[in-house]
Amino acid sequence: MKRIVVLxxxxxxxxxxxxxxxxxxxxxxxxxxxxxxxxxxxxxKKDFPSALTALTGIKNExxxxxxxxxxxxxxxxxxxxxxxxxxxxxxxxxxxxSAARYSKRLCLANKESIVAGGKFFIxxxxxxxxxxxxxxxxxxxxxxxxxxxxxxxxxxxxxASGGAVRNVPLRGLRDVSPQMVLKHPIWNMGARITVDSATxxxxxxxxxxxRFLFDFPIEKIKAVLHPQGKIHAMIELEDGxxxxxxxxxxxxxxxxxxxxxxxRIKLFDDFTPFGNVTFExxxxxxxxxxxxxxxxxxxxxxxxxxxxAADEVAVDAFLKKQIRFTDIYEIVLKVLxxxxxxxxxxxxxxxxxxxxxRILAEEMVNTCC
Length: 369
Ligand code: MG
Prior knowledge:
The chain has a 7-stranded parallel β-sheet, with helices on both faces. Helix 3 (70-78) runs parallel beside helix 4 (91-102) and helix 12 packs antiparallel against helix 13 (327-336). It has 14 helices and 11 strands. The chain has a domain at 2-134: 3-Layer(aba) Sandwich (Rossmann fold). By secondary structure, it is an alpha/beta fold. The chain has helices at 12-23, 38-45, 70-78, 91-102, 111-127, 137-146, 178-181, 191-199, 201-213, 252-260, 288-298, 301-319, 327-336, 347-368; strands spanning 2-7, 27-34, 52-55, 65-66, 82-85, 105-108, 131-134, 153-160, 221-225, 231-237, 242-246. Magnesium ion binds next to helix 6.
């Protein structure tokens, strides 16, 4: 039996992972972590009695470990074969680095660790002799498409649904409410990523993620609008062939793939009929965040950290109705326009840029409206 730790066990990815792990008999969940939601964590533990529990955000005597280094302690005492990193946001970077030290495989759903960590993160994981299997659906698809592909790959194409407000006229975008934006047409995901999918900051982050995960040149990574959410990615080969990856839009499929790789395990009996699929070039006027991601990628390490951090702050403010939908982009743009370091070589340097850009983004939220 493979021994698994699930970080971020009470979030969307964590809950789906535990759902998969409960069905598959060849894994033992030896550890679970949450930020503050100890009630759900302890309730979940009933299904996985041998799992140790850790809580990072608050003190609680009922869990095995709590506090800032609780995940480190959890990993040290369980020494798992694989870790599912389902923690959302920049916080995931630190824990993904710890998970790489204590296990042999990261089933990585946290894209921010790759975006903010960049080369430093990829090299640190490699040094720890740990492999990364991406769980992010598009990157999981690219990983599968590249597997065994010997011919030259000319481009990587990530698909984007366009989010919940993709049909709202451009002029109306500034007035869309969080409620409207949170109604994602295809995927069931957390709040931040659902907003990011409507602005395409999510696709911007994913372009950055692909750049480092697959060590691929920026100009050869593209995004296309594909509202049906059936094709998750494509690769274009030198002879003009396009290989596409299709599956049901259910995160349990990439989670199971990452856990079982190189094997495949049957998860569902039901079959989704295919129907029409369409592809369109995304409009930069509607999705300026997408264009901004290429600019930030060219700007070096600091800009990527800022792109993520400022967006995290702005999305949070939008969800609290402190700013408008279109202010999210404006705030990130303004924070990016400050001077940021081109190279970040260690965690401390990355964290410093993350903190500074958050403070700036918060100031802008407060003076914005
Ligand atoms: Mg994705």
